[in-house]
Amino acid sequence: xxxxxxxxxKQEGPYEPAKxxxxxxxxxxxxxxxxxPEEDTGNWNPIRNYPQIFEKPPENVLPWxxxxxxxxxxxxxxxxxxxxxILITAVGMMFIGxxxxxxxxxxxxxxxxxxxxxxxxxxxxxxxxxxxxxTLAVCTKHD
Length: 143
Prior knowledge:
By secondary structure, the chain is of the alpha+beta class. It has 2 domains: about 5-55; about 85-140. About 45% of the residues lie in helices and about 10% in strands. Strand 3 and strand 4 (about 45) form a beta hairpin. The longest helix is centred in the C-terminal third of the chain and has 28 residues, at about 110-140.
């Protein structure tokens, strides 16, 4: 879009935005100089009211590629062979049982580090067991 400018009491132009920016940079006009769009029949306004004059067009800019939207499965994946999940659950049960047995069999003279290690082992077993159960419940195919 080109603009007319009000200079020295009369209408001048029309000027391209790049030329208007150049005139401002060379102090020939200011951002309060009155301007009027070529296609508009409205009032004269200061140049600062037309932000499009100050927007420089991009130079040699490639457009962003349009990427397809990622597709997310609506349900959890179905596991047809759940032997691995059963094994994970069983390992978790063995951890819990083994740590509970060791905890019952240990003397009360064990050190704080031994007690912590025992509790960590039990917690690990609970986590493995829980993971196995949840995974079995969510991912196995129910016919």
